[in-house]
Every structure is written in structure tokens, then in C-alpha cells.
């Protein structure tokens, strides 16, 4: 009895179901209204067909769209139905095990372009990881640089030097946020309660050191580095698309292999290794997925930690205890099946007020994210995730027992799966069959031979004929490699856990401005549709593998993003069309069906607003997101849809367009680089054409309708088959939703829609109006 009680007290994590009865009722109420609308539509269509109604096809189109919206509502209902929260108790870890018994963690950071992703951003992320509260001898950090940039490498080398001061400083003073740019930009960073002179001195000298580091990194002209002291000789003449592997060990504390020091980790800084994988124009490199696979193999032959953390270059650790929280979920279940990986929600640093670009996704995470966490488990989001190495190696949950090997794979099998590197095969064998707590690779003295092995596995031809990118590692075939890879893990039967400590685990940057936000949405929607059309689609995984049915349906919530575009576009066009062509597709105010429509319109919007309020967000944030949904769907999702259609026809290829990261500055004057960062900006990219055209069309329709009301039907009583309140509200609502584009039509510079976009949009509108009025 007593022992059972102590065991209970030692619980490292708790899975807490979150009640939501009221929300469930609201879900059902909206569903009921949707179904009522469909029923009304079907019955009135039958009458119309009988009477040969003129605009019957409008109603058929509306019926199809509304049926689709109902499906989308059902998908969301499924995902949100049973949310859970995971509470973690890192303070109890110490009761379970000593520091020396914690599993090692390899931490991966990817960067791809020194212009779009300033080295200082990456440096801050790396420093925040090196300074985590975790035995330093158990942490190693690997940076993949797809930009093959001497400037990035130089910045990291300098950061490694700085880390020797920064890490002990953080430990000694219990610094809360260990990305220096945040620490030094927060006012009162120095004004600790005890205000003692010694701390103040240490703080000031640390701040000077950091400013010196920033200066060195910012002044490191690429050319200077190139002419440098020979340390950067490999970068000379290296083209980012065509160069051999470059690996640099920037920090390697040999004493970390000394067991006496290892356990406490005092005075040790985690290792830091820079990797720029081989690239050849003839070989596909699979973007981030390819980079992650190289990091997996390189770390496999060097440190081979059983746990891997991966973050994007702009996502710093905001909670220094994050690795300990993650361990609560990785070690805290009776069966590791429950935490194949541990994912922290993407949260953003310095996000703009009220989310003007609709990409902070707080509500999506709190509603859908926690909901999916209650099914088979949260999706993999590409960053802020702790993976078990063996899961990434394709091992299903029941193949190893906790203590030992069930089936030890043969050398031949491993060779076929993992490729020809002996070192990798051996390390993979120990991962697949061993348990987490075995010390990884034996103490290694010979760093040079390790690096040779690491170079071998970074070669761009290494994966040929192996399972990398398929059953092993990050999966290829989609721009949204994270969701695809997560799906494979769920399909193997693993469950996954949501890591949501307070303060938030990681913070990253969300793109601002029109082009950045829409490009990101376009890439995601493209990748998700690629998944749906591939042999990895969730239906097949549910039918033939171990993906839960409800989890499969939850994946559809995001996988169908691009498919939602044509339906939403069609529905958006119906209002203006009817006003211009003098038809109608919605019930008249005098008809009973109108009540359903009104209730649905109000109910749906109140429901959504309620969700924002529930997540402690403003009405403005709700409206911005509602509006951005319409904009994104008619631009990014629509183009994603067309891109994938073209790709399927073999007419084009999809590429990963890297998001521009804002340079984070130490002073707080950073924001005035852009006069109004929340205002929508434009460029001449084709994504802007459809929403511009829709904006123009809705304005035309509003003008048309008003004119018809005034000049046409004398009293203002519309003709019985012509547009009514519903159609007019549609057009007006569209104008409100596309307000940033209305402003774009009357503004200049980057706030104005470029002329060639306006021209193309105007041509589309002219053609549409012509066809609508054509008798
Ligand atoms: O060829 C490439 C392209 C990108 N990246 C890295 O991938 C990361 C994500 O790229 P980013 O441009 O920031 O895309 P986001 O849309 O912000 O990323 C989200 O969406 C991606 C999938 O589309 C996921 O991989 C990311 O983890 C997730 O944060 C960055 O660290 C890049 O350096 C590479 O390493 N190699
Ligand atoms: Mn990003």
C-alpha cells in the first residue's frame, strides 16, 4: 500500500482530460443548422426543378459548397471533441534518477540561407540550447547549414567562444530566457532583487561581451571570412548548390567523456558541430527533410543520443527546463508507446498585436492541438519536438521490450536500410535494440576518424538504395515534411504527447507582411495536398497500418486546406454573380429558410468569436483571423491547389521557399524599420491576383446592386427571382473581409497592389462580369 502511494507521488506526468460540454453542445448546434440548411436546399431545389427555376444551377453549386462546409465542420468537430492537457513535473525527476542517468539529447538546428535567416538569429537559438538546464555532458548541438555560408559558420565559431562565458553565467544566475538578445533587451534584466554589486558587474561585462559578439558577426563580411586564416578555406569557391560536405567541430569538451565530471556537468559546455552537407546539381536534396536526415546520421556516428530535439533556426528555447519537462513525458509513462515524440506548440516571439496576418495560430493550437492530443496524439510540427531516435529509425512501439532485444536485426538488413557506413550501422543497432539509458557510443578519443565517418554519411549519394526518406528518417515527397513524417510515426502505432510547460517551451518568429505570410501558407497547403495525393495519405495508413481512424480524420482537417479553396471561391463568387446577373441563391427574407441562414451566420461567427475569447484573445484578433482565412483561402490555398494540379500533370516542381526571418535587435528600436508592421503589404506575386479580383468584383457588385435598387425597381422591391438581402450581405461581407485589399487598391509603395496585379485582376473581373450578364 505504502509503496503504491509513493509510486503515485512520483508520477512525472499527468494526462488531464479537459471538459468541454458547453462547446460540444455548440458544435452540435452549428452542425444542426448546417444540416437544416442542406435539407432546406434540397427540398427547394426539388421544387425549382419541378418549376424549371432559372437559377437552379446556382442553387446546385451552393448545395455542393454547403455540403463541403458541413464536412469541414465535422472534421473539426472530431479533432476538437476530447481535448487533453499534459502536466509535467520535472522537480520529481531527481527522485527517480540521478543526473547521470538522464538520457543524452542531440539537438538539431537547421538554417538554409544567411540572407533570409541572419546568422545572429541562428546564434541566439544555438546559445539558448547550449545553456539548457540539463547535464551538459549529455547535450550536443548540431547545426545544418544548407546555405553553405562562411558567415554562418564564422558566427557559430564566435558563438562557441561566447558560450564559454554565457553558459556558466546563465547557470550561476538562473537566467530565465537564455537567448541573449531577449535577456539583454528585457528592461530590468540587471535589476535583480538583490541588486548586488557583483551581479551587476557580471551582467555589465556579459552585456558588453554580447554586444562585441554581435558587432563581430555583423561586420564579418563574407569576403573577409573567405580570405581568412585558412579556417574557412573550404568555403572559398563553394557554391551552395554544388559543394562537398563541410563539417566543423566548434566545441568539443573532451572532459565531457570523463565520467566523474559527466554526471554533474559542471563547467562543461555542450558540443557544437557545424554541418553543411554535400550538394550536387544532379542530386535532389529534399530541402529540410534532407537536412534533418543528414543531421540524424552525422549525430548517429558522433554522439548517437537516444533522444533528438529539433528546432528551426529562429526558434529559441524560452524555458530553460524544457528538456527536463520533455523527459517527464518521454520517461514518465509506463509504456513508451504513449510518447513516440513530444511536441511543443509553435508559439511566437514578439508577435504583432491582434495577429493581423492570422499566423500566430493560438486558437488552432488550443482547440485543435489539444484536441488531437486527446486522440492518438499531437501532430509533429517540424520544430520544438523531441523525438526518440529509434522511432525516427522506423522502429514500431512493440518491437523492443524495456529491457532488451526482441529481434536483433542482421547486419545485412541494417546495411540495406541505413546505408553502407559501418559506424552508422553499429550505432543504429545499439539504438534499435538497446534501451535509452545505456551510455551511447563508447568513449571516443579519435575525433578525426569520427569526422571522416560523419562526412561519409553526409554525402549526397549516401541515401541511394537505402530506406532514408521512406521508412527511416524524415519522409520525402512533401513540402510539409513534418506532417508527413509525423503521420508515418502515428501509422507505426506510436502515440505522441503535447509538451506545454509554463513559460512556453520555445518561441519563434512568424512572418509579417502579405508576401511572407501567404508564401508560408501556400507552402504548407501545397505540401499537405501532396500528402493527401501520395501513397502516405491518411486513409491508406488507417486502412493498412496502425493509424487510428479518428486520428486519420483529424489529419484531414489540415490535409484538405488546398481543397477548401475551390469550394470557398465558388461560394464567394455566387453572391456577386447573383447580384450582377439578377439571380438569387439564398432564401429571401420572407421565406422560412431565411431564419436558418441567419441563425447559421450568427451562430457560426459567435462560436468562433467565443473560441477567441476562450483563448483570452481580443475581438479584433478574431476578426483578423476570420478575414485572413478568407484571404488565405482565395490566394495561398488556391495557388497551392493549382500548383499541385500542375505537378500532378507533370508540368511543374514544388520548391521549399524559405521564410524571411526578422533580425532580432538588442535594443527595442527594432520595430521602426517598418512604419506599420501590422499593415498588409503586397508584391507582384501571382498569389495576389485572385483576392484582388475578388475584391474588385465585390465592389462592382455592391455598386451594381445599389444602382439597381435605386434606378431599377422603382420602390426598391427586388424582383422575386432576383437577389435579396442574403446576396447583398454576401457582397458587403466580402468587401469587409478583403478590406486589406481595398486599402491596397488605393495605396502606394509596398502597401499598394502592384499595377500588373491590378491589371490581371481587372481583366478577370471584366471577363466574369461579361459572362454573368451575357444572355
Ligand atoms: O532547404 C531547406 C529549406 C529550409 N530549411 C530549414 O527549415 C526550417 C523551416 O523553414 P522556414 O522557412 O522557417 O519555414 P516555416 O514555414 O516557418 O516552417 C514551418 O513549416 C515547415 C514545413 O513547411 C516545417 O519544416 C517547420 O519546422 C515549421 O516551423 C528553417 O530552419 C530552414 O532553415 C532547411 O534546412 N533546408
Ligand atoms: Mn519559420
From TrEMBL:
Residues the record lists as binding Mn(2+): 288, 312
Compartment(s): Endomembrane system
Protein's UniProt name: Cellulose synthase-like protein H1
Transmembrane segments: 54-75, 553-574, 594-610, 631-650, 688-710, 722-741
Gene Ontology process terms (BP): cell wall organization; cellulose biosynthetic process; plant-type primary cell wall biogenesis
PANTHER family reported for this sequence: X-BOX TRANSCRIPTION FACTOR-RELATED
Organism: Sorghum bicolor
Record: active site: 146, 482
Coiled coil: 200-227
GO molecular function: cellulose synthase (UDP-forming) activity; cellulose synthase activity
Binding site for UDP-alpha-D-glucose: 117, 146
Amino acid at each position: 500500500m505504502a509503496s503504491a502511494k509513493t509510486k503515485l507521488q512520483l508520477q512525472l506526468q499527468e494526462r488531464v482530460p479537459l471538459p468541454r460540454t458547453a462547446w460540444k453542445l455548440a458544435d452540435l448546434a452549428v452542425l444542426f443548422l448546417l444540416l437544416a440548411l442542406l435539407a432546406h436546399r434540397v427540398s427547394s431545389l426539388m421544387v425549382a426543378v419541378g418549376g424549371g427555376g432559372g437559377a437552379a444551377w446556382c442553387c446546385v453549386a451552393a448545395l455542393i459548397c454547403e455540403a463541403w462546409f458541413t464536412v469541414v465542420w465535422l472534421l473539426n468537430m472530431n479533432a476538437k471533441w476530447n481535448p487533453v492537457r499534459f502536466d509535467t513535473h520535472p522537480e520529481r525527476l531527481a527522485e527517480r534518477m540521478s543526473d547521470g542517468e538522464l538520457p543524452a539529447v542531440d539537438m538539431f538546428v537547421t538554417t538554409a540561407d544567411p540572407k533570409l535567416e541572419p546568422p545572429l538569429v541562428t546564434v541566439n537559438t544555438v546559445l539558448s540550447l547550449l545553456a539548457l538546464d540539463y547535464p551538459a555532458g549529455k547535450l550536443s548541438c548540431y547545426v545544418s547549414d544548407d546555405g553553405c555560408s562562411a558567415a554562418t559558420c564564422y558566427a557559430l565559431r564566435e558563438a562557441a567562444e561566447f558560450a564559454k562565458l554565457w553558459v556558466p553565467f546563465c547557470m550561476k544566475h538562473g537566467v530565465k530566457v537564455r537567448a541573449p538578445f531577449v535577456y539583454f533587451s528585457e528592461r530590468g534584466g540587471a535589476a535583480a532583487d538583490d541588486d548586488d554589486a557583483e551581479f551587476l558587474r557580471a551582467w555589465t561585462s556579459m552585456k558588453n561581451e554580447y554586444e562585441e559578439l554581435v558587432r563581430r558577426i555583423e561586420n564579418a563580411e563574407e569576403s573577409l571570412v573567405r580570405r581568412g586564416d585558412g579556417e574557412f578555406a573550404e568555403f572559398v569557391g563553394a557554391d551552395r548548390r554544388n559543394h562537398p560536405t563541410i563539417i566543423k567541430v566548434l566545441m568539443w569538451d573532451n572532459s565531457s567523456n570523463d565520467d566523474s565530471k559527466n554526471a554533474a556537468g559542471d563547467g562543461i559546455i555542450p558540443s557544437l558541430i557545424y554541418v553543411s552537407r554535400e550538394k550536387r546539381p544532379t542530386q535532389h536534396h529534399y530541402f529540410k527533410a534532407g537536412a534533418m536526415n543528414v543531421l540524424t546520421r552525422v549525430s548517429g556516428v558522433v554522439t548517437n543520443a537516444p533522444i533528438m530535439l529539433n528546432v528551426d533556426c529562429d526558434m529559441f528555447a524560452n524555458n530553460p527546463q524544457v528538456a527536463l519537462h520533455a523527459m517527464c513525458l518521454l520517461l514518465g509513462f509506463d509504456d513508451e508507446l504513449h510518447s513516440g515524440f513530444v511536441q511543443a506548440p509553435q508559439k511566437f516571439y514578439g508577435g504583432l498585436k491582434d495577429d493581423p496576418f492570422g499566423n500566430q495560430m493560438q486558437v488552432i493550437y488550443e482547440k485543435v492541438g489539444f484536441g488531437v492530443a486527446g486522440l492518438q496524439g499531437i501532430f509533429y510540427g517540424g520544430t520544438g519536438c523531441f523525438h526518440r531516435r529509434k522511432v525516427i529509425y522506423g522502429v514500431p512501439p512493440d518491437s523492443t521490450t524495456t529491457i532488451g532485444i526482441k529481434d536483433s536485426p542482421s547486419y545485412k538488413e541494417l546495411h540495406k536500410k541505413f546505408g553502407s557506413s559501418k559506424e552508422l550501422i553499429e550505432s543504429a543497432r545499439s539504438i534499435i535494440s538497446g534501451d535509452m539509458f545505456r551510455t551511447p557510443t563508447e568513449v571516443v578519443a579519435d575525433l578525426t576518424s569520427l569526422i571522416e565517418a560523419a562526412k561519409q554519411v553526409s554525402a549526397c549519394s549516401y541515401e541511394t538504395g537505402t530506406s532514408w526518406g521512406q521508412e527511416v528518417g524524415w519522409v520525402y515527397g512533401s513540402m510539409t515534411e513534418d506532417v508527413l513524417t509525423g503521420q508515418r510515426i502515428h501509422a507505426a502505432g506510436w502515440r505522441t504527447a503535447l509538451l506545454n510547460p509554463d513559460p512556453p517551451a520555445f518561441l519563434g518568429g512568424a512572418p509579417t507582411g502579405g508576401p511572407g505570410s501567404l508564401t508560408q501558407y501556400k507552402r504548407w497547403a501545397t505540401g499537405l495536398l501532396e500528402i493527401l495525393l501520395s501513397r502516405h495519405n491518411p486513409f491508406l495508413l488507417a486502412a493498412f497500418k496502425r493509424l487510428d481512424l479518428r486520428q486519420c480524420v483529424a489529419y484531414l482537417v489540415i490535409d484538405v486546406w488546398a481543397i477548401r479553396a475551390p469550394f470557398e471561391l465558388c461560394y464567394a463568387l455566387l453572391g456577386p454573380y447573383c447580384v450582377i446577373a439578377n439571380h438569387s441563391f439564398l432564401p429571401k427574407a420572407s421565406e422560412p429558410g431565411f431564419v436558418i441562414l441567419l441563425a447559421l451566420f450568427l451562430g457560426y461567427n459567435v462560436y468562433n468569436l467565443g473560441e477567441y475569447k476562450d483563448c483570452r484573445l481580443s475581438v479584433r484578433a478574431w476578426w483578423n483571423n476570420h478575414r485572413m482565412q478568407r484571404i488565405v483561402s482565395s490566394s495561398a490555398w488556391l495557388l497551392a491547389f493549382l500548383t499541385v494540379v500542375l505537378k500532378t500533370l507533370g508540368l511543374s516542381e514544388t520548391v521549399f521557399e524559405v521564410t524571411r526571418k526578422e533580425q532580432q535587435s538588442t535594443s527595442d528600436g527594432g520595430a521602426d524599420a517598418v512604419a506599420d508592421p501590422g499593415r498588409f503589404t503586397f508584391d507582384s506575386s501571382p498569389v495576389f491576383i485572385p483576392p484582388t479580383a475578388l475584391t474588385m468584383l465585390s465592389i462592382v457588385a455592391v455598386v451594381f446592386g445599389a444602382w439597381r435598387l435605386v434606378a431599377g425597381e422603382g420602390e426598391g422591391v427586388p424582383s422575386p427571382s432576383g437577389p435579396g438581402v442574403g446576396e447583398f450581405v454576401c457582397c458587403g461581407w466580402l468587401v469587409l473581409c478583403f478590406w486589406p485589399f481595398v486599402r491596397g487598391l488605393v495605396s502606394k509603395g509596398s502597401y499598394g497592389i502592384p499595377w500588373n496585379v491590378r491589371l490581371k485582376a481587372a481583366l478577370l473581373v471584366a471577363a466574369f462580369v461579361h459572362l454573368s450578364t451575357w444572355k
